[in-house]
Amino acid sequence: MFVVAELSRDLQEFVANYSVDRRNTDSLKWDALQERYGDPTLLPMWVADMEFQTPVAVRQALTERVQQGVFGYSLTPDSYYEAFFQWQKERHGITLQKDWVRFDTGVVNSLYAMVKWLTDPGDEVVILQPVYYPFANAIKDNDRKVLSVDLLSGDKGWAIDFEALEKTFKHHTIKLLIFCSPHNPVGRIWTEAELVKVLALCRQYGVQLVSDEIHQDYEAELGQFKSVLTVADGTYQDDVIVLTAPSKTFNLAALLNSHVIIPDPDKRESYDAFIKTIHQTEGSLLGRVAAEAAYRHGGPWFDKLRGVIAYNYSVLKETLAEIPEVKVADLQGTYLAYVDLAPIVPADGLTDFVQKACGLAVDYGAWFSPKDKTYIRLNLATDPKYVATAADRLAEQLKFRKK
Ligand SMILES: Cc1ncc(COP(=O)(O)O)c(C=O)c1O
Questions:
Q1: I need a surface site. Which of 65, 163, 198, 351 has the fewest CB within 10 A?
Q2: Which residues partner with 361 through β-bridges?
Q3: Best mutation site among 104, 214, 335, 377 for ligand 1 pocket (most ligand atoms within 8 Å of CB)
């Protein structure tokens, strides 16, 4: 057993105060295990939400709004923009303007809208697999074709294959690149140099870049994340469309509130004309009430959460260090650990190994890329006791297999 530095006292307090048992709460993660994995007893380490209650201020704001008892059509108050913009400015140095922002009921919904808006049936759309699987679904479900420029994985971790990206842009007619930043599932925070290269290629070949920045706040080291809105001092601001939401940061996914940020006025006009043919959403009232309180008051809560995630990652990494063949990707951003179980577990035995031998429910690498058949993704935004259990079960079973 490896010894990991103790969880500090204030993080222990955070876990004690905010951790909840989500069984029997209609939680997808906990209560759909039978339906999704055929076994309700698995320990769920899949889907990207958490076992932590949102900050107290968020719950108070929601309670107060619910007490009003009227839920008619609503406006987004200026105070929302203030709180949202201040968070973006303080955390990431992004200066936003009110007229750039459109609302949606989720980033995945926006991905589907982006594909419909920016491409035509039969078009090829570029993504960098392995990547969050709704990217591919949004393309395929809209009768477009997925063209993956696969990320490279080597000793130095995951990287963009710029040569292949340029070749693809040169030899295919590509209108849209859907980009993930920070990148789920490989945990990369792209450097400014990498982002500039991607943006310059998109500009050169006339490819629209849509950047999904939903994980922007999860930085292992603060200040690492750069939005495509701000790289090269904002040189590419008018080129890009950015999708964000407070839902990953503050565990608000079911409140259905997300942002579409479009700085360029012509693109915005085109988007507005398009989106009204799909839905004329006013967004989610309670989602916005929660988000405003979270942006305004949730910083200290969030920084503790980041501490717990860092601790959980160290537990996983050190426990699996006993089996050096198994690779755990660097966690620069997101709260999702991408682990390659090859060469110990063969692709065709992965499900049995994870579910039957280890009793875990995970996201499988094959969901993110057809090539990643020996990978699993583990969610670390949870009570450390679950991460310790998952890591111990994996280590024990891997050692057993190795014998
Ligand atoms: C990269 C990425 N985009 C979008 C989402 C989901 O966004 P939403 O719940 O707003 O549809 C997730 C959830 O895990 C994600 O990882």
A1: 163
A2: 44
A3: 214
Residue 49 Cα, ligand 1 centroid: separation in angstroms? 10
Identity (one letter) of the amino acid at 150? D
pLDDT in tens, 367-386: 999 999 999 999 999 999 99
pLDDT tens-digit map of 198-256? 999 999 999 999 999 999 999 999 999 999 999 999 999 999 999 999 999 999 999 99
CATH class of 9-54+299-402: alpha beta
Is CATH 1.20.1290.10 correct for 58-297? Answer: no
What does the domain layout of the chain look like in residue ranges?
9-54+299-402, 58-297
The CA 2 to ligand 1 mean position distance, Å, reads 33
Whether 206 and 323 have beta carbons less than 8 Å apart is answered as no
The length of the chain in residues reads 403
Residue 120: its pLDDT value, please? 98
Angle between helices 265-275 and 107-118 (to 10 degrees): 100
List, for residues 78-96, the tens digit of each pLDDT value.
Answer: 999 999 999 999 999 999 9
39, 355 Cβ separation under 8 angstroms: yes
Distance 215 CA to ligand 1 centre (A): 8
